[in-house]
Amino acid sequence: MWGGRFAEGPSAIMREINASIPFDKILWREDIRASKAHVAMLGAQGIVSADDAATITAGLDQIAGEYERDGVPEDWDLEDIHMTVEARLTEIIGPVAGRLHTARSRNDQVATDFRLWVRTANGRAIAGLNALRAALVERAGEHADTIMPGFTHLQTAQPVTLGHHLLAYFEMLGRDVARFEAAQERLDQCPLGSAALAGTGFPIDRDATAHALGFAEPTRNSLDAVSDRDFALDYLMATSQCAIHLSRLAEELILWASQPFGFASLPDSLSTGSSIMPQKRNPDAAELVRGHSGRIIGACTSLMITMKGLPLAYSKDMQDDKPPVFEAAGLFDLSVAAMIGMIAQTTFKSDRMRAAAQAGHATATDLADWLVREADIPFREAHHITGEAVKLADTKHCSLEELALADLQAIDARIDDSVYRALSIEASVASRRSYGGTAPDQVKQRVNEAMDVLNAAAERDQ
Ligand code: ARG
Question: What are phi and psi of 279, to 5 degrees?
Fold first, then answer.
């Protein structure tokens, strides 16, 4: 299609290095959709005749049917999906096919196709994450009162509720959804009609093609439109950030499902066995969510580095924008789906969580706070007294709650038996009623609000 000025055809190596059809054929629906919008506009503007426009449209519909049925043929000589479609169109309708490429270039064509594809991927990410958030909220509601150890440095710190812990991820994923939504808003301009780089002399109607393809408006600068891939990077950055969150959640599920923790049992359907150790139940799905996050972040890094040195406008390097996006999208969608299953179906072992919270002197801060509140002791001194109590409990192999009043009073005479009300893990979590705190009544309020947020989002998306 571009051989006119050449005496010789490309070498085998040239053909191979140039071909993007092996990976960009995934764009065939977007390519045909954009071509149909383009030719409809050319017809409406009288740039091609109404008859030719109708012939081209019918040919494109036939190709869509063929690809739907048989897949897209891969011919390296045709380089990419754009030329593959055009070559097939020529076979079907003859030379009139050549009119389709009036007032456009593969540069605005690929930018448009890819935007359409990324727009769908953003939508899928938002829907998947909202389903995952719904699963988290549901489990958080079930476990608003379930007590587990809260950790810092992975050391038992203070008791928290499992509902509160799960809602932490609800918050993270809510910010991730907002990132995909912001990406979607920025992407909402159509490059079609920017042509190779400078626009076109034909009297095209860019608003018409933009609206036909569901964009808010056309892009305002043709050089920018054909040469930036920030919309793809927005998607990759949002998936990378979200993959970091999913990876942390996966890591926690892996820890919780380990025998020493014993906090959770992952569903059979998302675990695997070992071919040598019959007792094993491996959390492979969670491990792969954690693992895939590395590849997703790698995809984002790859495209950032591809883009950073390119002069305006289009350079062929930009053909390499697609594999990282397609790979990351596949891994991301799968990770979200796996995580929905794990959150919905994991059995949480409330008794083990409670015992672990009980065992780690998790209420030591509550004792110190009690000394401050009830005995008017400065916090630093209260901290020291509590440290002594912890040491004693360790020597006696018991919990703080199990220490006799006489033992506590031997450490500090100002302690009386009302201290025991502060030392139970139930009292500890119930007391943390500050907004956003772990108290069960706080968690229940947040669960209700979260359900409202999700219902509002579902209504918006109707
Ligand atoms: N396959 C190419 C890509 O994905 C299409 C654009 C080709 N443009 C060009 N000027 N050679 O980037």
Answer: -80, -10
Adjacent-strand bridge partners of 159: 149
pTM for this prediction: 0.94
* Topology classification of domain 107-353: Fumarase C; Chain A, domain 2 (1.20.200)
Q: Could you tell me which residues come within 8 angstroms of residue 130 by beta carbon, excluding any fewer than 6 positions away?
A: 177, 454, 457, 458
Burial of 379 (0-12, 13-18, 19+ CB in 10 A): exposed
Q: Which of 80, 86, 113 to mutate to test the pocket of ligand 1 (most atoms within 8 A of CB)?
A: 80
Which residue's C-alpha comes closest to atom 3 of ligand 1?
319
* Class of domain 10-102 as given by CATH: mainly alpha
What confidence tens digit (pLDDT) does each residue in 397-407 have?
998 999 999 99
- The ligand 1 site (C-beta within 6 Å) comprises 20, 24, 80, 106-107, 110, 314, 316, 318-319
Question: Phi first, then psi: what are they for 303, rounded to 5°?
Answer: -70, -35
Atom of ligand 1 nearest to the CA of 81: 1
Q: What CATH code would you report for 357-445? A: 1.10.40.30
> If you measure from the C-alpha of residue 421 to the centroid of ligand 1, how many angstroms do you get, rounded to a whole number?
71
Tell me the catalytic residues.
Answer: 153, 274
Gap from CA of 11 to ligand 1 centroid (Å): 18
Ligand 1 center from residue 89 Cα (angstroms): 19
For 104-126, how does the pLDDT look when each residue is reduced to its tens digit (9 = 90+)? 999 999 999 999 999 999 999 99
